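Note to self: keep these together.
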Amino acid sequence: MIELGGFMYSYSIDGEGFNGGYGSCEQAIEACCDSHPEAEMLWVGECKKPTQPEQLWDANDWLEQVAAHEDYNGDYWDTSTRDEREWLESLIRPVLGLWLDRHGLRPEHFLVEGVKQYIVESIEVEGSVTRKVRAFRQSLTAGD
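Structure:
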């Protein structure tokens, strides 16, 4: 799993594919301008860990799958209570987490949220090109 100690930021030159992990938005902007001096637009967003897979396991989904299986043909009738299903989830999720860890199957990616779009303006002063970056708009998620 990618470690996200503190806040981490990533940049994009197309608003879709994000690169790197930087300690601040300013560092991400600087890295983008250094790596892509031709860029006229850039996007920067905050990196976030995805929900861990074991947290997505749901007792209701599993019980519905059992009921739909051909061996049960809809005859299986679940009478478990909400508390009983929550207890089942509290048992199964840690086992799934152990399985993911043992086999190195934790997600290695991150999500990018709070994406802001910036305009990059190149200004030439006395033969030297300076880039000025200003905020253009903010998106809710990457790729907006």
